[in-house]
Write a structure and sequence with these properties.
Layout: H1 3-13, H2 18-24, H3 30-34, E1 46-52, E2 62-63, H4 68-73, E3 85-86, E4 92-93, H5 98-105, E5 109-116, H6 124-133, H7 144-151, E6 159-161, E7 178-179, H8 193-199, H9 208-237, H10 258-271, E8 277-282, H11 291-313, E9 322-328, E10 348-353, E11 360-362, E12 380-381, H12 382-392, H13 398-401
Parallel strand pairs: 1-8, 1-9, 5-11, 5-12, 6-7, 6-8
Antiparallel strand pairs: 2-4, 3-4, 5-10, 9-10
Biased composition (Acidic residues): 235-244
Biased composition (Low complexity): 245-254
Keywords: Signal
Length: 413
């Protein structure tokens, strides 16, 4: 299912209204964000939401390596204790997450255990709709951050997505966040620099439509340059990897590399733009077969992008007020399938990181033997995490956004 089909599906299903999607899909450009530089409270925090589309296997991300039930349930898929990046005597991180392991040791990474919701749904779209609307009983037509945006004044630039389509979580009742896609765009090749510069410059007597076209082309060149710089820097810093980069699946995820999306977020934060919420994503986590190698490649991308971003943010006052939250629509089943993969499951872990985060583990680890039809029973309601982010990062009464929800995570922010 391509992006356009996904968008039509969302409108037809009533999860997001066409009006809200149109509002978020308006022609917002990077310059529109940078124009708000300095127009914010310097003490305000910023939320960066990272969505891992496809259902990331939580048990092979935060690994209960000391639990015999883990090894019994997935004998060929389980990691031996000596390969795990240990957090304590029972739990560790996937071998690909060495950077996040360092952040945990520095007190900048919090692992929230057993996150889920009542009566879980194993459908990708349905579960993600539940996560994005924060309405497990019956997903509505607004996203939880869209409802926050309605109360924060409604300026679309306060909540920005660097994904190819506006995610439902940024759609409110009266409007939506800004979609500033950076994928699928290339500059003209073979033309001299003078010609490209002319295309990007409006003439004094041109019509408004032609002037707008010139401005859009100028922004296109600006974004292309930044993306190219990010990729070149990454290529210079990192060794060759023989494993192919998996493409985003039909379950979503931006095709632009996660580190490129986060680099744009970093530039916006450092410029002091008004944006309080950024949404970025990575797809490909629907690992029904040959999971171990594929997930390690994906988690390696996540690790490099997040640790580079966290270290960059730690260097400025504005960056130290950034909180990153990482989630997926569900985890995987405890027992491996016959194809060396895992099928759709339920509860998983969320990651919170940044200088403002108090590192450690939060919530109760779910049992691997007391299961619900082969699935983990959630121990932390995801609305507890959302409420904490709304209250501690976005300075908002969570009850107004989450229908009176009173649960919180204590001590993490």
């Amino acid at each position: 299912m391509d992006i356009l089909t996904r968008r039509r599906f969302l409108v037809a299903s009533g999860v997001v209204g066409a009006t809200a999607l149109a509002a978020g899909a308006a022609a917002y450009r990077l310059d529109d964000l940078l124009a708000t530089a300095g127009d914010r409270d310097p003490q305000a925090r910023t939320l960066v939401l990272v969505t891992l589309y496809g259902g990331n296997d939580g048990l092979n991300t935060v690994i209960p390596y000391a639990d015999p039930a883990y090894h019994d349930a997935r004998p060929d898929l389980a990691y031996p204790a000596e390969e795990v990046k240990r957090l304590d005597d029972e739990v560790g991180l996937n071998p690909a997450l060495s950077g996040l392991h360092r952040l945990h040791g520095e007190g900048r990474l919090a692992v929230v255990r057993g996150v889920g919701y009542p009566r879980p749904d194993r459908s990708h779209f349905r579960s993600m709709d539940i996560w994005q609307t924060a309405q497990p009983e019956r997903p509505g037509s607004t996203g939880w951050l869209g409802r926050w945006l309605d109360r924060a004044g409604g300026d679309p630039r306060l909540a920005v997505s660097f994904e190819p389509a506006l995610p439902p979580l940024l759609a409110g009742e009266r409007g939506a966040g800004a979609s500033v896609p950076v994928t699928g765009r290339t500059s003209a090749k073979g033309l001299p620099e003078s010609a490209l510069t002319a295309f990007a410059t409006a003439a004094p007597d041109e019509s408004p439509a032609r002037a707008r076209a010139a401005a859009c082309f100028a922004d296109l060149r600006s974004v292309d340059t930044m993306i190219r710089q990010v990729r070149d820097a990454a290529a210079a810093e990192e060794p060759e990897d023989d494993a192919e980069t998996p493409a985003a699946t039909a379950t979503g995820g931006a095709s632009t590399p996660l580190d490129a999306q986060l680099d744009l977020v970093a530039q916006c934060v450092e410029a002091g733009v008004a944006t309080r919420v950024f949404s970025v994503s990575l797809g490909g986590f629907d690992t029904h077969a040959d999971e171990k190698q594929l997930q390690q490649v994906l988690l390696g991308q996540v690790d490099r992008a997040l640790t580079r971003f966290a270290d960059r943010m730690a260097r400025t006052d504005a960056g130290r007020r950034v909180v990153v939250a990482v989630h997926s629509e569900f985890g995987r089943r405890v027992r491996a399938n016959a194809s060396d993969g895992t099928d759709h499951g339920t509860a998983s872990d969320m990651l919170l990181l940044g200088t403002a985060v108090r590192g450690g583990q939060y919530g109760e680890p779910p049992s691997l033997t007391d299961l619900d039809d082969g699935d983990l029973k959630f121990t932390t309601d995801f609305r507890d995490v959302y409420a904490t982010l709304l209250e501690r990062v976005l300075d908002t009464d969570p009850g107004e956004v989450l229908a009176g929800w009173r649960g919180r995570l204590t001590g993490v922010l």
